């Protein structure tokens, strides 16, 4: 089984600033994927970014980027130029095969 | 593309009754569907995995007879909460993996809020 740990239950950031959300995971698999999902107040899960474990290059999606440290089993999310619409729960997840494992989430509030 | 719907979005039922939640893949065929439960301000807890035409695989601690899952077609899976009790009140989310889509992608429905009175 895999475990995903998010050690920051709540975070806040000023609008237009940068914030980093932490995630660590544990897996014995060689081939796996890592994800960050956003869950706004509507509760709809939205994929923010995905990282294939076999790729060394960090994934980026516009204002969102990750710092993937495979040896340390760390997968942090950086949000640049934070916007009010970024206010949401953020879940880190890992997947290998048929199952997804979610972290406990980080509640991010962007302050105007 | 890759839209998943759930119906109903909200449901209130009385204790002891059963309620059915539908999960549909609207524009793709779903080989596998997942059902999650989410308590307020908590993470998603996987309840079961269902493959079209076969029995669902339940996670440890999930009562199979209470949470009946049927994946009868490539576009529809249903979760029936039988003899519901107030402790079953929660937010239920389904997700789906699609034919022709990367195996690591799962597409989430908008969720169903169940309240048992």
What is this structure's SSE topology?
The complex is a heterodimer of chains A (112) and B (117).
Chain A lengths: L2 E3 L4 E5 L4 E3 L2 E3 L6 E7 L6 E7 L7 E2 L2 E6 L4 E6 L8 E9 L2 E4 L3 E6 L1
Parallel strand pairs in A: 2-12
Antiparallel strand pairs in A: 1-4, 3-9, 5-6, 5-10, 7-8, 8-9, 10-11, 10-12
Chain B lengths: L3 E4 L2 E4 L5 E7 L4 E9 L5 E8 L5 E2 L8 E7 L2 E6 L8 E9 L8 E2 L3 E5 L1
Parallel strand pairs in B: 2-11
Antiparallel strand pairs in B: 1-3, 3-8, 4-5, 4-9, 5-6, 7-8, 9-10, 9-11
Describe the global form of chain A: globular
Largest interface: A-B, 18 and 17 residues
Number of contiguous helices of chain B: 0
Strand content of chain A: over 45%
Percent in helix of chain B: under 10%
**Mean pLDDT metric of chain A:** 94
| N-to-C SSE string of chain A, H for helix and E for strand | EEEEEEEEEEEE
Report on the structure:
The complex is a heterodimer of chains A (112) and B (117). With 112 residues, chain A is mainly beta. Chain A contains no helices and twelve strands. Chain A has strands at 3-5, 10-14, 19-21, 24-26, 33-39, 46-52, 60-61, 64-69, 74-79, 88-96, 99-102, 106-111. In chain A, the strands form three sheets. In chain A, strands 2, 5, 6, 10, 11 and 12 form a six-stranded mixed beta sheet that branches. Chain A has a four-stranded antiparallel beta sheet with strand order 3-9-8-7, with no helix packed on it. A two-stranded antiparallel sheet of chain A has the order 1-4. The mean pLDDT of chain A is 94. With 117 residues, chain B is mostly beta strands. Helix content of chain B is 0%, strand content 54%. Chain B has no helices and eleven strands. Chain B has strands at residues 4-7, 10-13, 19-25, 30-38, 44-51, 57-58, 67-73, 76-81, 90-98, 107-108, 112-116. In chain B, β4 (30-38) and β5 (44-51) form a beta hairpin. The mean pLDDT of chain B is 93. Classes of the chains: A mainly beta (112), B mainly beta (117). The interface between A and B is medium-sized, with 18 and 17 residues.
